[in-house]
């Protein structure tokens, strides 16, 4: 707002007033004298009369001068009062103008401050909105990355460098990897620090023979804390896979890193290194400790190998060490049973053989032998199918069943993985002769298949065996 303009009264020049106040009295006296009528000619007066007249005239003149002086003083006082009034008005106008200017300046400053505050608040709100948007985008990106990692791991399964329990399990691993490949590639892009997808991509590259790429991916997964990746790196340097040259020091370091991360496969492999004295000194006690650690994590491969040590003293000089409690067949039983329950059918058959022959602390037990043989056979293990047929033929662990025995022999041969000469290997190097009724049932099946034209006489000779061989071809 512009300063308030107050009209000021127009002042007469101070010079005029000062002149009036300071003018000499002589002219005034002359004026008074001029205005006094000249006396008429009178007759001569006496000196006394003349003196009296002069005195009277002087008194009158003095009175007039006094009145004029008083009037002049009154006029000067009026002028002074007017000057004071005008000065007061000017001062009041000045003060009012200054007050108005100050008010206007304060209002402008207040308006500027308010504008600055509003701008600052708007900037703060914009910054908060931008930060919220950034955080929302980060959360969304993190959610997408976590979803991709979860999809990869759900499809491919956990990172594992362990030996599969069977060929079927091995095929299932690669089937899952094929299904999960796209999700794992997306996860590695959105969450490059996630070790699980990197491990699975490394496994795919290794299966494709892209070993340098596989090693690079395993190294990234290992840096992310994936113990199985350390194990796979140890395998590369242990065995010299592809273009990677053997380096036992690096292999041992990798297996130790895997063991520190509780990877059972790396722990079991390190146990083997101590068994063989490969890259480290032979140490049966350390071998057993490491196998036990991996077995306690449920790793079937470690369970079977530790059981083998307890059964035969494998890895222990002379096959015996009382301080280590080797051998101890009884300690092998729960290890083999655990491995069998995990799906290792070799363990189930080893347990069946243990119950067949018996050992110190483990007497022969036909029903247990039958039970574990059946477990392996029902899992589709070809030698176990043949072994179960033999037990049914001989009536071991249960009453003999010639029909089931013959059907079992045929089923084992049809897998193509059991040779005719090994069909009754469960009976040892020299199994007893065929049960006649089982042989007859076997010949009948071969005859029905058009593979045997001889007599149904229960004698398993060259003709019967020839037809049996055709089952596996």
TrEMBL record:
PANTHER family: ERAD-ASSOCIATED E3 UBIQUITIN-PROTEIN LIGASE COMPONENT HRD3, SEL-1-LIKE PROTEIN. Residues 1-32 form the signal peptide. InterPro entries: Sel1-like (IPR006597), Sel1_AlgK (IPR050767), TPR-like_helical_dom_sf (IPR011990). Keywords: Signal. SMART domains: SEL1. This is Sel1 repeat family protein. Gene3D superfamilies: Tetratricopeptide repeat domain (1.25.40.10). It comes from Roseicyclus persicicus.
